[in-house]
Amino acid sequence: MTSDVPVTNNSSPSGSFDTPMAKIIVSAVVVVVGLLFSAVLYSDQADLYDSSFALAIVRQITAETAFQPFFLIASLVPIFLAAARNTSWLALAAGGLILLSVLMPYARFEYIDVTTGEIDGAHNSLYQLAGPGHHMPTFVSVLFLMLLAGVTAMFWRVRIGGLIAVMGAITTAFVWPTVFDEPPVIDDSALIIFPSKSLLFGYYIAWFGAVIAVIGEASIVSRLFGGDRSDDAAADAATD
User: Fold this and answer.
1) For residues 217 and 159, is the Cβ–Cβ distance under 8 A?
2) Alpha helices in the chain, H assignment, sequence order
3) Which of 73, 119, 89, 124 is nearest to 18 (CA)?
4) 190: pLDDT confidence band, cut at 50, 70 and 90?
5) Under a CB-based contact definition with an 8 Å cutoff, are residues 104 and 201 in contact?
6) DSSP string, 117-141
7) How confident is the model at residue 189 (pLDDT cuts 50, 70, 90)?
8) Alpha-carbon distance 98 to 152, whole Å?
């Protein structure tokens, strides 16, 4: 007598890769490599520290400001929580990249010690551009949209999260002149150079995550992520 219940072979390579542990490991590798690469590539702030280059890079990532540990927790914990919940690779990639992008360099905004006239530090990530004490409240709106986009893509609806990220990226254009101490003025309006060389790769990583979220389900991208059905498709099926 044979059973009608299909037998699932979890020993296949694809099956073993599609597990919470595998997703946590991949997420950790991407996060560490991304943050280290960004810190080494844009080491302006680390160069100001009186320590070895390696320690300065670690400090730039973890303790550039007093709020940096909170920034890391707020951005990275949702990624690992989604991985532990075994969310789809598509949702994890899209939402994870969007959240990781807020920790990466968006721009350089140097601030000067008014008593000495010397450069005392610099904003780097989107979190620092919108961080407390940095007098950059205009970037709070962009930061909020990116956080909402990443969490939405991973835990709720992938495509909606991508669209929110697009809104955040476009909103950046309207607040970009505040990156400059004295932005160029044309016809009594601050010149918005968008996009430009002043936009660093964290900004483009946010766009990359948004694109994956918006077009991933119905394209080759979904097959590259193992043919997972996105959370959008699962939610739509549940309503049928």
Assistant:
1) yes
2) 13-17, 20-41, 53-62, 68-84, 89-101, 126-129, 140-155, 158-175, 201-215, 220-224, 231-239
3) 89
4) low
5) yes
6) -SEEEEEEEHHHHT-TTTT-GGGHH
7) low
8) 10
- What is the rounded average pLDDT of the residues 154-182? 83
Residue with token string 């044979």 = 2
Give residue 3's pLDDT. 44
> How many whole angstroms separate alpha carbon 161 and alpha carbon 185?
35
Give one word for 43, left, alpha or beta, with left for phi > 0 and alpha for psi -120 to 50.
alpha
Angle at 114 between CA 109 and CA 180, to 5 degrees: 25
The Cα–Cα gap between 203 and 100 comes to 10
Per residue in 45-74, pLDDT (tens digit) is: 677 777 777 787 777 777 776 777 888 888
Residue 81, classified by CB atoms within 10 Å of its CB into exposed (0-12), middle (13-18) or buried (19+), is: middle
Vertex 142: Cα angle to 137 and 147 (nearest 5): 115
Residue pair 112/149 in contact (Cβ under 8 Å)? The answer is no
- State both tokens at 24: 């946590």
